[in-house]
User: What shape does this take?
Amino acid sequence: MTKEKIVFDCEDALQMKAVAVMIQKASQYHSTIYIVRSGRRANAKSLLGVMSLGIENGAEIEIEANGDDEKEACEALISHLKNPKIAV
Assistant: This one.
């Protein structure tokens, strides 16, 4: 299992788009991927699940990936979340 923490830093106007793109990116991998925030965990491939976490600007989140492409998946999501403007 691969885990990495990050602080979500995104302009208010781009937050929902950044989260939607993250879900699309997560769906490209075979690994099981979860987003963890404040002790709550959601499937990173589920829009409803991720939205239920209430990810907002400045929130500390953790990406957990488990599977054959877990490192690649975790790196891609962290990279996107560090600079979400690239994919918008």
